[in-house]
Amino acid sequence: MQRLGKNHSGYHGERIDLRAVLREVEITAQAHGLASETFHESGEFKWLAYRRPPLVTRHSSRIYISAGIHGDEPAAPLAALKLLQENNWPEHAEIFLLPCLNPIGFTLNRRENADGIDLNRDYRNPKAAETRAHIAWLERQPKFDLYLCLHEDWESHGFYLYEQNPDGKISLAEKIIAAVQKVCPIDLSENIEGRAAKGGIVRPNILPQERPDWPEAFYLITHKSRQGYTLEAPSDFPLAVRVNALVAAVQAAIG
Ligand SMILES: [Zn+2]
Fold first, then answer.
1. Which residue ranges in the chain fall short of pLDDT 50?
2. What's residue 24's pLDDT?
């Protein structure tokens, strides 16, 4: 697969009309009967959480999916939209989907919010209003069996993921990689973002308590879930490939 070669010292790929994407998200979710809740508003934007109840209640599992915390990672909210359009959730799954955590970042085409705060480092002592509102929403939710955070990485050579699995549950990492590699190259580097990696899987050995700047995933693993994956699509490949990679990853994880 041909790389784009566009991303030098940052993301310089396609941009999206986020307002149009969020409108489409809202229409699609409504058409499929998902419940929605606005947990934050700023200017023209609303921060929405969508919920689809499980269709069978026996052995149901709660799955949290978030996207769009970094405004220069367009594949993530597009993947959230595609998942809603496909509406192919497993019967037993209770889905909590937050399609865009940083809409203002997308209008600026940058990672951070309007005040230059990287929201994905703001979950320990939150400064940004959108992080505080998101945490307040999370505090009202039940625990999740699984969390999935959708991202892109402009430096990576292919798709990869971070796994958090402190209790040693059955890992979903290999299953996710196997599904993604049918649609997108995998980053096979032995070191990704300064951490040991194997076959596109990073299992960081970090105690959140030892870190001052928490990403969303540290908040989730500390307070809301005992297993989760941060999914990283490679920005140097076409946008449609990245979207398909994230959708395939989510479907493999929840299937
Ligand atoms: Zn990101």
1. none
2. 98
Amino acid letter for position 188: L
- Cβ atoms of 118 and 216 within 8 Å: the answer is no
What is the model's pLDDT at position 3? 85
CA separation for the pair 75, 160 (Å, rounded): 14
List the one residue out of 162, 175, 176 whose CA is nearest residue 227.
Answer: 162
> Ligand 1 being an ion, which residues bring their Cβ within 5 A of it?
70, 73, 151
Written as six digits, the tokens of 76 are 């993530």
Sheet of 160-164, strands arranged across: 35-42, 45-52, 93-98, 61-67, 146-153, 228-234, 160-164, 201-202, 195-198, 191-192
Give residue 126 CA to ligand 1 midpoint distance, Å: 18
Q: What is the pLDDT of residue 100?
A: 98
Report d(CA 220, CA 203) in Å as an integer.
16
Using alpha carbons, select from 215, 210, 65 the residue that is nearest to residue 131: 215
In the reported structure, the alpha carbon of residue 184 is separated from the centroid of ligand 1 by a whole-number distance in angstroms of 18
Q: What's the rounded Cα separation, in Å, for the pair 196 and 193?
A: 9
Alpha carbon of 57 to ligand 1 centroid (Å): 33
Distance 223 CA to ligand 1 centre (A): 21
Is the pTM value of this prediction over 0.90?
A: yes
